Amino acid sequence: MSLVRELWAFLRARKKFWLVPIILVTLLIGGLLVFAQGSALAPFIYTLF
User: Are 33 and 39 a contacting pair, CB within 8 Å?
Assistant: First the structure.
């Protein structure tokens, strides 16, 4: 949890709030790939990239 707190402190101190959507989308795509790795949806998801 300290990583999240440190990242938030960096974004707040440097006024880089525009990075928040980029980080969230990256985490969402990463989670989708990890989730779909062992499922039958994997071939369909990998064709998107």
Answer: no
Longest dimension (CA), the chain: 44
Q: How far is CA 17 from CA 10, 12, 14, 25, in A?
A: 10, 7, 8, 14
Altogether, the residues listed in the chain come to a count of 49
Q: Quick one: what percent of the chain has pLDDT higher than 70? A: 84
Residue with tokens 């402190």: 9
Q: Can you give the pTM of this predicted structure? A: 0.65
Backbone φ and ψ of 47, nearest 5°: -70, -20
- Return the DSSP state at 4: H
